[in-house]
Design brief:
Distance between the termini: 47 Å
Radius of gyration: 17 Å
Number of helices: 2
Strand order of the largest sheet: 1-2-3
Oligomer: single chain
Number of strands: 3
Shape: globular
Strand content: 15-25%
């Protein structure tokens, strides 16, 4: 079992990587750079000032599948 998320190579050439969570589940694949960005996103602490403001500006819709408000 892992103690933190890890980036592991999937091929011998080192072109494709997988990002695994603490439990060993693969949560993303791609180039090393893509996995590093995903790792940054999932490990950075949430910003208390930005998160509250964003929710206030976005209206809640009853249909969560709707991508465009009509």
């Amino acid at each position: 079992m892992h103690t933190k998320p890890m980036i592991l190579p999937l091929d011998l050439n080192g072109k494709i990587y997988a990002l695994q969570d603490e439990k060993g589940n693969t949560i993303g694949t791609g180039t090393r750079e893509v996995c590093e960005v995903l790792l940054y996103i999932i490990t950075k602490p949430p910003s208390p000032s930005g998160a509250g403001k964003a929710q206030l500006l976005i209206p809640q819709r009853p249909n969560v599948r709707a991508a465009i408000a009509i």
